[in-house]
Amino acid sequence: MNIKISTEAISTIATDCLIVTYCEDQDNVKGFTKAVDEALEHRISQLIAEKEIKGKFGEVTLLHNWGKIPAKRTLVIGLGKESKLTVEKVRDAMGIAARHAQKVGIKNLTFGVSNYYVEKKLWNPVDIIQGIVEGAELGTYTFKGYKKKEENEVSIQEFILVVDSALKKEAIEVGLERAKVAAHATKLARNLVNEPGNKMTPAILAERAKQIAHKRNLEVHILDKADLEELGMGALLGVGQASANEPKMIVLKYIGAPETKEVLGFVGKGITFDTGGIQVKPDEGMGEMKTDMAGAAAVICAMDAIGALRPHVNVIAVVPACENMISGNNLKPADVITSFSGKTIEIVHTDAEGRLILADGIAYAKHLGATKLVDVATLTGSVISALGREATGLITNDEEWANEVKTAARIAGEKVWQLPNYEEYQEYIESEIADIKNDAGPAAGCIQGGIFIGAFAEDTPWVHLDIAGTATAKKDKGHHPKGATGVGVRTLLKLAIRYASH
Ligand code: BES
Ligand code: MN
Ligand code: ZN
């Protein structure tokens, strides 16, 4: 969508639809809502008086302006309690409003950014603009799919932001630029995750990563099966060995601070389809496992945004990618494999494959010089039991590094919740026959998965993000339409940007 900034009076703008806001605990309309209300002869306040508009969060009321003003329609979006308003909620509200408008067939959408919250010093203008634009861009995302083009499929072409003249021009531009880059990368990640498994094999994922690298001028290396064999990546090879589509290790490098030795290593789980292996998953909902490369999508697409903004920091992305399939040549329970790190692993469960490929991913990122690690993975069903779909689970071996990641996530508007890494849990993953085993039953499942990966990070500061619950939305919600959310991209981007100013 094309984004335009305007300082014209909001009621004079010719547009398909104006979006205005209303809060639950507000006595009367304010700012741009007031201006539009007056131009519409108080229709909005009338509906408020009649309790048809309550201002509940996400409530949508669409009015037709019938020639009273040049704008054809007015959409009133509820923001909930004003006292509980956050940038996150503004992003979600804009997502809901813009998606609603798009479904109605609106092509040109206008929103007035009131100076009210800036004046109250509740938020800075950069964050507000960024939240609004991200909300509109991400909320209206649709996956192209493989249907014949539907005749009346429409998308919003133009988004006009009417700004108060008191808002600083530079702030608007910075907010807009950040939003565009972040939203582009997030949508790119959603596209990768929404692809069916046969259209997103390890080789295709590697190809997409290559395209991003070329566009953003990043170094790219794709290791194929022969390279993996030479390097002794027994864990990635082991999981991938049952598939006709060979595994790949994808590496992207952005060297923005060549004078320093600090290198952020982002490692993403790239299981392009997870059948469970020989301990096969039940048939119901198995198709969802096409999204098991959402961690890979997050780190690859974060590199797209980092490559666009070029912060003063070094970042490498490492993505072990393969299919967890079934054949005559499967990993089996009780098999022992040797990982790239040299550690041997007892396979207890072939469906606990993500941690296996990440073991090689993490060890390889360290081998390439990563000094701080973050892995992103749709790792366990157990994290969904613990946190639902509201938050990503976090496990770490370094509280300071975890605080950096948590801060980045908070600013990016992605919820993370830390789970404990008590020493007592180490016993769970002790094996009688190998250095470590990949499963110890259902107790503390997401913690087991995390600390298994942590064993390969060793002393390097490391944070594990389990996005099994947050990588996909089961229904339209806030700035996430149903399907892949692109979670992780904006946290990793924020992390790299903040680290650059260290
Ligand atoms: N890819 C799954 C985890 C998953 C579950 C992602 C639901 C998204 C939605 C992972 O590989 C897996 O199968 N985990 C098992 C591990 C168990 C066998 C130790 C799980 O969580 O059940
Ligand atoms: Mn699995
Ligand atoms: Zn998996």
CATH superfamily descriptor of the largest domain: Zn peptidases
Our count of helices gives 15
Strand pairing plus helix content: what structural class? alpha/beta
Largest sheet, strands/sense/barrel: 9 strands, mixed
Strand segment count = 20
Distance between the termini: 34 Å
For this structure, the CATH topology of the largest domain is Aminopeptidase
The low-confidence runs, each spanning 5 or more residues with pLDDT under 50, are: none
The CATH class assignment of the largest domain is Alpha Beta
Rg, nearest Å = 24 Å
CATH architecture verdict of the largest domain: 3-Layer(aba) Sandwich
Percent helix among the residues? 25-40%
Mean pLDDT: 96
Number of domains: 2
Overall morphology? elongated
List the ligand species: ligand BES, manganese (II) ion, zinc ion
Q: Beta-sheet strand percentage?
A: 15-25%
Explain this structure to me?
By secondary structure, the chain is α/β, with parallel strands linked by helices. The protein folds into two domains: 2-167, Leucine Aminopeptidase, subunit E, domain 1 (3-Layer(aba) Sandwich), CATH 3.40.220.10; 203-500, Zn peptidases (Aminopeptidase, 3-Layer(aba) Sandwich), CATH 3.40.630.10. It is 36% helix and 20% strand. It has 15 helices and 20 strands. The strands form four sheets. Strands 7, 8, 9, 10, 11, 14, 15, 16 and 18 form a nine-stranded mixed beta sheet that branches. Strands 1-6-5-2-4-3 form a six-stranded mixed beta sheet, with helices on both faces. The chain has a three-stranded mixed beta sheet with strand order 12-13-17. Helix 3 (87-104) packs parallel to helix 5. It is elongated, with a radius of gyration of 24 Å. The two termini are 34 Å apart.
